[in-house]
């Protein structure tokens, strides 16, 4: 688990706007975990999560999902953190997804299954990307599209050595690792306002000397 956390990319995000099918959301979160995405963002249809945070075949708990009331505020929040927002949307002027630079702080916006990226979002993103299609179909499933793009992001970051050293702050890495390994103790510490103890090599709370 420590090794997985040390490879997490805090400045590579995914923003899901109105993705409403649980199996699509679950598949996207699995890809986020596999690629090393630390945090996903979501605007839920009707404000109701399409899948529970701790579902997705157990992967939901490994990827932090931040909810936003609407896509405009979500994009603004990402911009405030200094992230570029790439919208996966086949509009005029969209570039091949492989031409985008994912080594800069960025987020990939995926729109709803039926209508894609909303007009409001289109007015606020930094760049449009598209997956070239040479068949008879006009598009691929949203979870497939997310996987294709995220693995290109991983390829670019691997080439730059961005997975070779921890990118999370030490205190964040310790906090998340403790919550993963010792969820019940972590919950008690939060309830009592206590700091998390250090962990030994086996992942257990270290005994004080």
Automatic annotation (TrEMBL):
<keyword id="KW-1133">Transmembrane helix</keyword>
<comment type="function">
    <text>Catalyzes the 2'-O methylation of guanosine at position 18 in tRNA.</text>
</comment>
<keyword id="KW-0472">Membrane</keyword>
<dbReference type="Pfam" id="PF12105">
    <property type="entry name" value="SpoU_methylas_C"/>
</dbReference>
<dbReference type="Pfam" id="PF00588">
    <property type="entry name" value="SpoU_methylase"/>
</dbReference>
<keyword id="KW-0694">RNA-binding</keyword>
<keyword id="KW-0808">Transferase</keyword>
<dbReference type="InterPro" id="IPR033671">
    <property type="entry name" value="TrmH"/>
</dbReference>
<keyword id="KW-0819">tRNA processing</keyword>
<dbReference type="GO" id="GO:0141100">
    <property type="term" value="F:tRNA (guanine(18)-2'-O)-methyltransferase activity"/>
</dbReference>
<dbReference type="InterPro" id="IPR001537">
    <property type="entry name" value="SpoU_MeTrfase"/>
</dbReference>
<feature type="transmembrane region" description="Helical">
    <location>
        <begin position="128"/>
        <end position="151"/>
    </location>
</feature>
<keyword id="KW-0489">Methyltransferase</keyword>
<dbReference type="InterPro" id="IPR022724">
    <property type="entry name" value="rRNA_MeTrfase_SpoU_C"/>
</dbReference>
<dbReference type="InterPro" id="IPR029026">
    <property type="entry name" value="tRNA_m1G_MTases_N"/>
</dbReference>
<feature type="domain" description="RNA methyltransferase SpoU/TrmH type C-terminal">
    <location>
        <begin position="155"/>
        <end position="204"/>
    </location>
</feature>
<comment type="similarity">
    <text>Belongs to the class IV-like SAM-binding methyltransferase superfamily. RNA methyltransferase TrmH family.</text>
</comment>
<dbReference type="GO" id="GO:0000049">
    <property type="term" value="F:tRNA binding"/>
</dbReference>
<dbReference type="GO" id="GO:0002938">
    <property type="term" value="P:tRNA guanine ribose methylation"/>
</dbReference>
<keyword id="KW-0820">tRNA-binding</keyword>
<feature type="domain" description="tRNA/rRNA methyltransferase SpoU type">
    <location>
        <begin position="12"/>
        <end position="151"/>
    </location>
</feature>
<feature type="binding site">
    <location>
        <position position="131"/>
    </location>
    <ligand>
        <name>S-adenosyl-L-methionine</name>
    </ligand>
</feature>
<keyword id="KW-0949">S-adenosyl-L-methionine</keyword>
<protein>
    <recommendedName>
        <fullName>tRNA (guanosine(18)-2'-O)-methyltransferase</fullName>
        <ecNumber>2.1.1.34</ecNumber>
    </recommendedName>
</protein>
<dbReference type="InterPro" id="IPR029028">
    <property type="entry name" value="Alpha/beta_knot_MTases"/>
</dbReference>
<keyword id="KW-0812">Transmembrane</keyword>
